[in-house]
Design brief:
Radius of gyration of chain A: 20 Å
Shape of chain A: globular
Strand content of chain B: 15-25%
Helix content of chain B: 25-40%
Oligomer: heterodimer
Distance between the termini of chain A: 63 Å
Structural class of chain B: alpha+beta
Shape of chain B: globular
Strand content of chain A: 15-25%
Helix content of chain A: 25-40%
Order of helices and strands of chain A: EHEHEEEHHHHHHEEHEEEEEEEHHH
Distance between the termini of chain B: 54 Å
Order of helices and strands of chain B: EEHEEEHHHH
Chain lengths: 294, 162
Amino acid sequence: MKPASFDYHDPSSLDEALELMAQFGDDARPLAGGQSLVPLMNFRLLRPAHLVDLNRIDALSYVREKNGALYIGAMTRQRQLERAPAVAQRWLLLQEATAFIGHVQIRNRGTVGGSLAHAFPSAELPIAMATLDASMVLQSKKTRRVVSAEEFFVSTMSTAIEPGELLTEIRVPAPPDHAGSSYKEVNRRHGDFALAAAAALVALDDSGRIVRCRLTFAGATPLRAREVERSLVGEMPSAALFEEAARHATEKLEQDSDVHASAEYRRQASATLARRALSQAAERAAQRARGAVQ
Amino acid sequence: MKQREVRVTVNGREYRGSVEPRKLLTDFLRDDLGFTGTHVGCEQGVCGACTILLNGEPVRSCLLFAVQADGASLKTVEGLAPRPDQLHPLQEKFWELHALQCGFCTPGILLTAEALLREIPEPSESEIREWISGNLCRCTGYVNIVSAIQEAAKVLRRKQET
C-alpha cells in the first residue's frame, strides 16, 4: 500500500459528485485521470480523506462543435482530444500542445479538465487554453459560473475552483477567420515538462495584415504577452517583425531558475520559440486565407 | 478498513477480489492475482514497467486503483502469447533480435508495442520511438527494441494478409 487510506466514492452522475463535493468540502479531492494526483498520493504528499472518482461519469466526456465553438467535457481524455477530427481541422493548437503531454500511456488516462485544474507550471493545456481565449465552467451543488482562462489560473497549482466546485466543461470560442496557430516547446527528453514554451495565434485580414494576435508563454501561470499582442495588430507579418516582437515579449518575462535551466536560458529559449510560433501561425493563417479565396 | 469488491477480466478470464480502495492496480494484479509479469518500477508513472492494457489501451497500472478497474478487461504480459508453447510475434522478435537484456522493462514495452501495432500496423521508426518513449530501458539503448518491433510488424502484417 503506497497511498494513505481514504474513503472512496465513485458517483455515476454529476449531481451525485457535486453532492459529495458539497458534503466533504476541503476534505474531498476529485480524481480525474490520476496521472498527477496518484503519484502525489503514492508519495503521500497528499492524503485526501475522501476521493471522489469522476471516471464513471460518462456525461463529462465529450468533444462537441456547436455554432463554431468547441465544448470539451472535463473528463475527456487527452488522447481523445488529440484525435478528435474537429480539433485537427480548426484547433490545431490543441492537438499540437496535447501531443507534448507525457506519453501515450499518460494521455490515455490523463484528462483535459484534470490538467487544467492541476495547473502545473509549464503544463501544455493551460498555455493552449489561454491562447485560445477558452473559458471554464465551474459547478457546485448550488452554483454554476463561467470564468475566463485569465481568472481561472491564479498561481502555481492554484486555480479559481472553490471547495465544493468541480470544473465540468471547457469552452473554446470559434477561431477568427483566416487564423493560424502554433505551439512550440523545448524540453530535455520526450514527455518531460517544458523548459520553455510559446503558443501563438495570428489572424489576418483580406490585405494580409494582422487583425488579432495571441502570444502565451510557460510560466508560473500561462503568461500572455498583451502589450506585444496589441502592438502587432495592423502590421504585415514578416520575419523581422516577429523577431523584434519575440525579443520584446521575453525581455522581462518572469521565469524561474532551477536545476534544469536558468531563468536567463528560459528567456532566451522563449524568445526563439515565440519567433517560430508567430511565424508558423502567420504562415498557416495565410494558407487559410488563400484557401478561402480559391 | 472498508473493503470493496472488484471484478475484472484478465487475459480473458474473470477474477474477483476484495480490496482496500487504496490498493494500486499493479499490486492487485501481482499480489492478489499472481500476475507478476507486471513489473513495479518507479510507482510514480515515469518508468512504464507496469504498463498493461486497460480495455485495449496501454496505461500505467501504478496510477490506477484496483477499484477503478472494476468491470474492466485487462491484458498483462502473461496474456500476450496465444498458447503456452508459442510466443507472440513481438516476443519472438525480441528474443531473436536481442531486444532485452535484464528484461525488467520488457513486459511494459511489449504491451505498448502490441497496442501500437494494432493502431499503426506499419509504423515508422519515429512513430515507434514516440510510442515507446513512455517506457524506460536502461540496458539496450533501444536500437534492438525498435528493430524487433519493426520485424514483428512485418510478421503481423503477413498474418493479416493470409
